[in-house]
């Protein structure tokens, strides 16, 4: 099982896929052993072989990911509620799916007269908006808050920070508001929420 999981991780980190020989070399095992691993994983839809015979992730991984999303959202909600109330802004957990950022959980503040209505399931490019750019910063090892202004919606302001240290998860926690945000104050709150979410999901 350990080898099978390591194989899935290797393929997931190789956008162009991997050959059986490449997998064997990276795992330090023989090609025959790789074929024995590939058979069941392909049968369960976790892996597929493209026209060139390279191994790629299969649709079964997406099915598992979708089943896990409600658990991620549930684990993040307490920290998101605290963040929304303290910042007075709509808080959200954004995850990477299919190369885009997707709002997985959204919490609106209870005490503000006006706030941004941000729909769960909303998608956007990772290079636009604080949530996506925080994820990209996290990939580069940067943990600090990222701010944005009007990148996804005119008149909307965002601050987000990456969720780090959760294996297999690329995500950010952030807030979005209709007025400029104090990046120093809100950034501290967002960082604390991102840390709390990471702790809850480990």
- Spell out the helices and strands N to C: HHHEEHEEEHEEEH
Strand content: 15-25%
The counted number of beta strands is: 8
Q: In which range does the helix fraction lie? A: 40-55%
Structural class category: alpha+beta
Q: In one word, what is the shape?
A: elongated
Strand order of the largest sheet: 5-4-3-8-7-6
Major sheet characteristics:
6 strands, antiparallel
Count of DSSP helices? 6
**Mean of residue pLDDT values:** 92
> What integer value in Å does the Rg equal?
19 Å
Intertermini distance = 21 Å
Instruction: Give the uncertain stretches in residue-range form.
Output: none
Summary keywords:
202 residues; two-stranded antiparallel sheet; 6-stranded antiparallel β-sheet; alpha+beta; elongated; 8 strands; 6 helices; 45% helix
Verbal overview:
The protein is of the alpha+beta class and 202 residues long. Helices cover 45% and strands 21% of the residues. It has six helices and eight strands, in the order αααββαβββαβββα. The strands form two sheets. The chain has a six-stranded antiparallel beta sheet with strand order 5-4-3-8-7-6. Strands 1-2 form a two-stranded antiparallel sheet. A hairpin with a 7-residue loop joins strand 7 (157-163) and strand 8. Helix 2 crosses helix 3 (31-43) and helix 4 packs across helix 6. The longest helix has 29 residues, at 59-87.
């Amino acid at each position: 099982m350990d080898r099978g999981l390591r194989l899935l991780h290797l393929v997931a980190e190789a956008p162009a896929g991997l050959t059986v020989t490449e997998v064997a070399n990276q795992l330090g095992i023989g090609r025959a052993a790789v074929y024995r691993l590939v058979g069941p994983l392909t049968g369960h839809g976790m892996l597929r072989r493209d026209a060139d015979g390279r191994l790629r992730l299969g649709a079964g991984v997406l099915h598992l990911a979708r089943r896990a999303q409600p658990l991620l959202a549930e684990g993040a909600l307490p920290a998101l509620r605290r963040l929304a109330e303290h910042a007075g802004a709509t808080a959200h957990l954004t995850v990477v799916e299919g190369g885009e950022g997707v709002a997985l959980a959204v919490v609106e503040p209870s005490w503000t007269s006006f706030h941004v209505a941000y729909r769960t399931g909303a998608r956007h490019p990772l290079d636009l908006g604080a949530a996506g750019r925080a994820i990209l910063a996290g990939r580069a090892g940067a943990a600090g808050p990222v701010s944005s202004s009007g990148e996804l919606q005119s008149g909307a302001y965002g601050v987000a920070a990456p969720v780090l240290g959760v294996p297999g998860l690329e995500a950010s926690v952030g807030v979005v508001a209709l007025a400029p945000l104090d990046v120093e104050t809100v950034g501290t709150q967002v960082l604390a929420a991102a840390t709390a979410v990471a702790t809850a999901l480990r």
